[in-house]
Specification:
The protein is α/β, with parallel strands linked by helices and 527 residues long. The chain has 20 helices and 17 strands.
Length: 527
Amino acid sequence: MELWQLLAVTPGQNKRQLLAGLHRLGRTELTTTDVNRTLYARPATFDHDDATPPRWRLTAAAVRSGAAIPPLAPRALPRCYVGKDPRAWQTEAFDAWVSNGRRGVVEAVTGTGKTTVGVLAVAAALDAGEKVLVLVPGRELLDQWYEVLRSSLHGARVGRRGDGHSDELTFHSVVIAIVNSAAKHEMLPPGMPGLLVADEVHRYGARYFAQALEPAFGARLGLTATYERDDNGLSQHLTPYFGDVVAGCTYDRGLADEILAPFRIAFVGVDFTSDERKAHDEHDERVRTLRRRLILNHGCPPEPFGEFMVSVNHLREGGSGNPRAAWDARGYLDAFSKRRQVLADCWSKHQALAMLVPVLASAERGLVFGETKSSAAHAAGILQANGVRAMELTSDTDSLRRKQRLAAFKDGQIQVLSAPKILDEGIDVPQADVGVMMAGSRSKRQMIQRMGRVIRPKVDRRPATFVILYVKGTAEDPETGAHEGFLEQVSDVAQETEWFDSSAAGADLLAWHLWGRLSTQPAGSRL
């Protein structure tokens, strides 16, 4: 009722302005979480724009109806759906996709449950007598989707294609297919209506993967944590096929609905040794020189970065027929790789990781994200030497050992997993409460996916801790523009963002981490 009054008088307020107004009205027990929860739970009454944070207003229907706040109407689920009750945002996203002609992309922060939106869409398609193809990027998601659909759908024959399976939609209601396998075949039987669900849809903007996006599927749903690419794949392949983002779940919504844990972020800046600085600067200068030459002399597009890299790799293979262009392309890629390796192997980062041992030791589970396989293994070794039960998980880890280590991580035999990109997406990682980034990423998507691994809600509602290590004065440094998109998205919803420099001690970081746990207060009563 108070929120209605505040927005009726002054529309366009964000959550913090609304909370201040509620406090002036005497509701001092309330928090921004309470405000968000109520705003998002009443879409018939409250609407918002696309600002960060959102600015809220009353819907036209709410203005016409006066101060009456309508109750939430129950939604009918598809008949063959027998899974767990969907969250409010999931049914809202499903409804928005249906209202958009059953086309569009749902963008939801990692950990909020975007798979359930896909399962609802699959169930509705089966109710309508349609065939369904679910595209996944790899075998881990192939098996995860298979188990979820088998347990959530009544009377559906679910098959798989890829990783040794060759099921077809001719004989199955639903087939989950690894995109590489689906791209080689026409999956939808002629004359049959169908739905295509693309999990991790951003991956399929690559030219070869886009061949799996069959035009015969009339209904199309993309699922992703961050709908962006470093090349032109969205505009060339994905948007023409799926359309735009139609719904999703932001950090604000996930925190309001208590399906994400509150989180705190620490940036820890470190310095190179003199030898490391010299090596980095030499590689960096060569990268910059050759990049200019590749753009000005050899026609590589400067942006987006992914298209630039595609062009460089084409030149490296001799695609232009110009030996000088091939030489420059190979030199650029060599310098780029060596610069990355210097950053990954920075001695001070490893010292900082050792300094973080008390923080990781206090965690129920921790994740360390490295840049390379060797740096991930080295990080695990540092933690082991300091008494932490840690193991690395890389692409060199065979399937059986990978499953064993994930199971050991889940039951507490392993306390910390150290990995490069393998944990970014496609693997169901058990809940962790501390994450450490050993290498900065230019990709907002990668940063968000990695943070999503540690912000699943905890039983005691303690906040998650996310620590980002970076070398000052390099491309990793936020002062030079690193993490700009990531920071813009999370800075307003993080409980706290703290900055530590190389003079900080392990005791400082441990005290900051533990204070975040002790100072967490239970949410106030609902509005």
